[in-house]
Design goal:
single chain; 52 residues; mainly alpha; two-stranded antiparallel ribbon; 2 helices; 8% strand
Length: 52
């Protein structure tokens, strides 16, 4: 039982780390694209700006 709890804690810690990394990447993306977002442009999957 102790091993299961330890494994679960390790998995949660890894998930927390991955979420934190995604959050940091998202913040950087928003900062890089802040002007375009302010103008109301959308970004397609290819990353090309498209007017709304």
């Amino acid at each position: 039982m102790i091993l299961l709890v330890g494994d679960a804690r390790a998995q949660w810690a890894e998930l927390d780390r991955r979420i934190s990394a995604f959050d940091a990447e998202f913040v950087c993306w928003v900062k890089e694209n802040e002007e375009a977002l302010r103008r109301g442009e959308r970004f397609t999957a290819a990353g090309m700006p498209m007017a709304v």
